[in-house]
What does this fold into?
Amino acid sequence: MKKLIALAITAVFLFLVGKTILWSARFMRDTGLTPGLVIRLLFDQGAKLKAKNGSTNVLILGMGGGTHAGADLTDSMMVLSVNSDKKSMAIVSVPRDIWSDTLKDRINSAYHYGEEKQEGGGLLLAKVVVEDVVGIPIHYAIVIDFSGFKKVIDEVGGIDVDVPRAFTDPDFPIAGKENDTCPGDPTNRCLYETIHFDAGVQRMDGERALIYARSRHAEGEEGGDFARSRRQQDILTALKNKMIRPFSWVTPGRITRLSRVLDEATDMDMNLAEALTLGKQFVRFSGTEVKKISFEDKLITPPSYVYGRYVLVPEDSWEDIHSFIKTQLER
It folds into this structure.
C-alpha cells in the first residue's frame, strides 16, 4: 500500500512538473520573457528590439472605436521614433487624409482593409502604407481604441496638458448619437455640443483628454486635422510624462487595473518582452524632450474631381518628404 501511495504521489508530482514546464515554455514563447531576459530588463537593456541605425520606429494608430460606421478608421496616425544610441525620441505626425495609390483610398483606411482580409492584417497593411509615406522602416505597430484609452488616463490619475491656445469648438459630436437625427431640425444641432479649452497647463481626466484629442471644428489655428494631430501628440507626451513618475500614482490595485484596461484598449504586434523594453527606453530617456515633427506644409489638396474626395498629396514629391523627415530625425 505504501508503495502504491508513493507511486501515486510521484506520478502527481511528475504531472505537475510536466505541466509547469509546458506552461513555462508556452509563456516564454508567447511573451518572449525568459529568466535571463527578466534579469536583463531589471539590470540592463532588455530584449533586442528591431532597429535601423539605432532607431526603433513604432506606428501608433488611434481609432474611435464603438459600433458606428467607420469605427475602425484610424483617425490618428503617428510614428514614434526611439533612438537608443542618441537617447532621443521623436513623434512624426502623419495626416490621415493622405492619398495612397496602394489602397486607392486615404491612408486612414489601411487598418480597416487589412482587418477585412484577415485578423491581424490591419497592423501589417498600415505599416506598409505608412512606410511609403514617411520613408523610414516601421518596426512595430500599436492600435489604440480611444474610447477605451480614456480609462488608461483615469487609472494614472489624469494628465497635465499644456494647451498652447484657447479655442472653442461649436460642433463637437456627442458620443452615442452618431446615428441619431433631430426631428424638425435639418442642421441636426442636437447631435453636437460646444466645448472650450483655455490656454495653459490643465489637469485632464480621460474624458476631457479624449475631447481635447478629438476636436477638429474650432475656428483659426486649432481647427482641422493638423491641429488635432498635434493635440494627440500632446496627450501621448503628457501620458508618458505621468507614467515615468510612478511614485505619484502607482498602487497595487492601479497596476492590476491598468494592465487590464491597456489590454482592452490596445493591440500590437510586439511581444511582452519587446513592449517592456520599449517602455524601459521611455523611462531611461525621461529627461529628454520629445521632438515633434510635422510635414503638413509639404502637402497640398488637389481639386476634388481628381480623386473624387478631399485628400492630401505631396506638393513636390514623396522623396522630398522622406528627405525632410530623415533630416529632422538626425538633428
